[in-house]
Every structure is written in C-alpha cells, then in structure tokens.
Amino acid sequence: MPFHETEVLIIGAGVLGAATARELSRYKVDVTVVEKGVDVGWGITKANVGVVCQGRDTLEFRPEYHRTRLLWRALPLMEPLCRELEVPFKKVGAYMMVRDQVLKEKLDKLAKRTESLGLGSDKYYPFTELREREPYISPEIKGGLHDPEIAVVHPVYLTQALMENAVSNGVNLMLETEVTGIQAGHSEFTVQTDHGEIKARYVINAAGEWVDRIAAMVNADDFVLFPIKGYVGVLDRNCSQLAGSLLAVLPEEPGDMNIVVPTVEGNLLFGIQLQINRRHDRSTTEHMARLALANARKLIPEISEKDVINSFCGFLMFRNFEIGWHECEVAMSARVPRFVNMTIGYPGVSASPGAALEVVEIMQADGLKLEPDPKFNPHRKDIPDFSVLTEKERKALVRKDPRYGHVVCRCETVTEGEIVEAVRRGATTLDGVKFRVRPGTGRCQGGFCGPRVSRIIARELGIPETEVTKAGGGSPQVPLRTKQLLEEGGGDG
Ligand SMILES: Cc1cc2nc3c(=O)[nH]c(=O)nc-3n(C[C@H](O)[C@H](O)[C@H](O)COP(=O)(O)OP(=O)(O)OC[C@H]3O[C@@H](n4cnc5c(N)ncnc54)[C@H](O)[C@@H]3O)c2cc1C
C-alpha cells in the first residue's frame, strides 16, 4: 500500500529541487519533495561559495552549452527572486586578474567576447589602478578585468527560503525520507522510501551527488557524471577588509580555480582547490588546505593560516568529457517518460531559477496540466537579523519580544529571539539553527554558544537535550547527562 500519492515527486531538497518546488507552487498541482537529510540545502548546495556567476568569467561558458543557456535565463531572475524571498543578495563585482603580461591577451579576448554577446563591457585596470580599488592584492598581479555584475548570495539561505515559500504555497516536504528504489509503471511511478511507498505521475530527480544512482534505479541513467571534489576555506570576519570584490586569477590550466570571495555575511572564502576523489568522501585534507592557502596568498599575501576558521568540501558533478566537462543534465530521460533528471555541476545556484522554469516547461509540454493558483503568494519574510538593526529597530523588536534582548552568540550577536524563530521555521539541530541565524559561525565556532543553543532547541521542541544533535542522526551533542554518567560509572575516568 502506498503511504502517499502525489502528482509530481521531487527527490532532493537542494537548491535545484527547492527552486523547482517553488516554481511549481505557482500552479494548482500536487507536489511532494522528499529529502533524506534532516534539513534542506545540506547537500552540495551547502558546500558552495555563493557566487551568482555571469558566465563571462571564462571561455568555458559557450553559448551552445545547455548550462550557459540556463544560466543566462536565470540571471535577470535572481535579484528579484531574492527580493521576494528576503534573501540577502550583494553585488560585489569581480576582478579577473593575470599575473603574466602574456595572459593579458586572454583577458582582452574575454572582454571582446563579453561585448559581442551583448553582456556589457568589462573594463581593464592595470595594477596601479587595481591596487587603488583592492589595496591588498599581490604586487605580482599585472592587471584585471572588472565585471561589475557579479553578486553573492548565501546558497543555504536561498534554498531554505525557496522551500519555506513553496511549503507555504502548498508543497508537501518530507524530511528524513530516503528514496531506496523506483519502478516505472504505465502511468505512474512507485517510489520506495525508508518510510514506505509513494506513487507519483512525474518524478524530478534532483538528488545532487546521487542523481545518477537514483536515475539508475529506473534505467533513466542516460548520462555519465564525474564528481570532482572542491575545497573551500573560510576566513575570520576580521579579514573582511582584504577583499571588497570577488578576486580571481585567470585559470592557466582547465579546472585551475583560485578565487577569494566576500560572502553576504562579511567573511571571505578562498579556494576552490579541485581534486578527483571518491564520491561521498567530503573530508577536507591538509594537502588541499595547504594548496588552497598558498594559492590564496598569491592573490592576497596578507592572508594568514591563523585566520582560517573553517573549511569544507563538496562535489562538482560534471558531465562526461566528450560532451564538455562542464555540461549539465536537465532533461526528461530519453528512456523513461515522465522522469526528469536535474543536475548542474557548476553553477547550479546561479542557474537554479532558469533550470526550474525549464523543468516546469518540460513537464507542461509532456501534458502536465498547470493551472495558475490565484492564492500563490511569492513573498516570504526573513528572520530579523538583530546584529544589523539600528538602535531604534532593536528597541522596537525587544519591546515586542524580550527574547530579542538576550544575546546568545557573542561572536555574531545572535539573540534568543532569532534562535526561537529559526526553530519555528523548521530547524531541529544545531546546524539547522546555525544555517538560519548564524550562531557558531564566528571565531569561537560554537564553543561558547553551542550548549546554550542546544538548550533552547530542546526547550522549543519539547525534547530532552540529549536528543539534540549537531546535524541529525549520529551526531549527539550531549550523549549523557552528568548524573547518568556518574551512575553508569563513566565519571571514574
Ligand atoms: C566547492 C563548490 C563551490 C561552488 N560554488 C558555486 C558558486 O559559487 N555558484 C554557483 O552557482 N554554483 C556553485 N557550485 C555548484 C552548486 O553548488 C551546485 O551546482 C548545486 O548546489 C547543486 O544543487 P543540487 O540541488 O543539484 O544538489 P544538492 O544540493 O546536493 O541537493 C540534492 C539533495 O538530494 C538529497 N538526496 C540525495 N539522495 C537522496 C535520496 N536517495 N533520497 C532523498 N534525498 C536524496 C541530498 O540529501 C541533497 O540534499 C559550487 C559547488 C561546489 C562543490
């Protein structure tokens, strides 16, 4: 017996699944999203540098590539989307720089190409002028091309906001539900999960790192993927003055990436150190960390390893080399009707609004009836960010709810009111709260505020503190109460 029936089933609540769910929520259609994790946006989307890329930074964005078309379709949509969902969107601009005068010719080519594609005209700045704009760049840099359109978003905030808005418009979200098998019937799919069966007329496979494995369950794996691991380092906020824009060095070899990126929160990220690696092994290695840091110092010599407060890895899922190693797969399977595969190695965040639109059109062309829902509300209110409010706004907020007057995370000035609101919006873990309102993202990385946040989560969810985890199954924060520990003899050492 199926435990659930739906018209469209989306597998995966990463940025692509969430954007598609939100796009579909404009219509009177029954949509369900299944996500194996405890929260949304914690797959590849979490391991991201958040650049809304313009497709003019390298020659690898050829107009004939599908991913380029999706990106260019998405670009005019991203800023208005972020406004509707109250997701921070910051236009920081970018400098694509060269260390070698010979490579300047390549920059000239890029600039001409940008102009000929009607994407604007990027200005070249020689070192002296560049240094006036970005005072910390290395004297080795010869000059750089300025792209004023580059923006940054927080990919997890965006995914949460898309999903929150989709759910408030009627989409059904099932967390901690893993797809384990799929059978294609004549008119519907039977999808097995660890919680029972789901019947669905259409399936959208947006399972990120596992998209090809899910497709293979139903013989819809008519594409090959090569996961390439990418390392990113995070610098303390006290380094924010080191770069005001995205700084990048023109790649000298394919896949050579060396960037420093300001985030919407004011930290700088550096990387992306690439490495062919076994899938699922998201661990950061000392080797990758050293290479990334050495590269970052070639851009900004003042970057110190003492300022690296965190690091992470994620997989860029690229298509096979013959097609073009950067190509994506966003299409209905040629072998299995009504089964849509959706994966973009890079830049999936930037291209997500375009990819979502295209997937909806693919299903509509196939016969899915999409009647606009007059009750659709495109707006979502963000959680107030106490740290950036004016004194007057802070006082007004505290008058309304005194919990906003209690600062829990000192590094990031996060209040109890914000943490409570994060839990109300769906956070059930420490990371769930951290990725909504930031306690634990500062210098102390949660060492001070972690136990306090844990206590608030337990209180709000009505569960014992021993049940609060860092990020779901297998990551308890308080394994045993002291009393229990002593009773069990664990206190004897
Ligand atoms: C280091 C790095 C930096 C990047 N920087 C940028 C950037 O600056 N700008 C940009 O635009 N793009 C960037 N990208 C690319 C971008 O992150 C990806 O294109 C995008 O996040 C892919 O999103 P997704 O929804 O396909 O995958 P995911 O975010 O991985 O979502 C898939 C979801 O499916 C779930 N899932 C998997 N299997 C199952 C199952 N069996 N049952 C149920 N659920 C399942 C997973 O738990 C996951 O939540 C970067 C990527 C990396 C690795």
- Coarse shape: globular
CATH superfamily heading of the largest domain: FAD/NAD(P)-binding domain
The assigned structural class equals alpha+beta
- Bound chemical compounds: flavin-adenine dinucleotide
What portion of residues belong to β-strands?
Answer: 15-25%
Biggest sheet, in brief?
Answer: 8 strands, mixed
Which segments are poorly predicted (pLDDT under 50) over 5 or more consecutive residues?
A: none
- Would you report the number of β strands? 21
Describe the oligomeric state of these chains in a short phrase. single chain
Question: What can you tell me about this protein's structure?
Answer:
This protein is of the alpha+beta class. It folds into 3 domains: 1-88 and 152-224 and 320-382, FAD/NAD(P)-binding domain; 94-148 and 226-317, D-Amino Acid Oxidase, Chain A, domain 2 (2-Layer Sandwich), CATH 3.30.9.10; 386-487, BFD-like [2Fe-2S]-binding domain (Arc Repressor Mutant, subunit A, Orthogonal Bundle), CATH 1.10.10. Helix content is 30%, strand content 23%. It has 13 helices and 21 strands. It has helices spanning 15-24, 66-85, 104-116, 127-133, 155-168, 211-216, 286-299, 348-366, 391-400, 416-424, 430-437, 450-461, 482-487; strands at 2-11, 31-34, 51-52, 89-91, 94-98, 123-126, 143-147, 151-153, 172-174, 179-184, 189-193, 196-205, 225-235, 246-249, 259-262, 268-276, 308-319, 329-332, 339-343, 407-409, 414-415. The strands form 4 sheets. Strands 1, 2, 9, 10, 11, 12, 18 and 19 form an 8-stranded mixed β-sheet that branches. β18 and β19 form a beta hairpin. α2 packs across α8, α10 (416-424) crosses α11 (430-437) and α10 (416-424) packs across α12. The longest helix is centred in the first third of the chain and has 20 residues, at 66-85. The N and C termini lie far apart (52 Å). The model has no long low-confidence stretch (mean pLDDT 91). Residues 11-17, 34-37, 42-45, 47-51, 53, 178-179, 206-210, 214, 230, 232, 272, 314-316, 343-350 line the site of flavin-adenine dinucleotide (FAD).
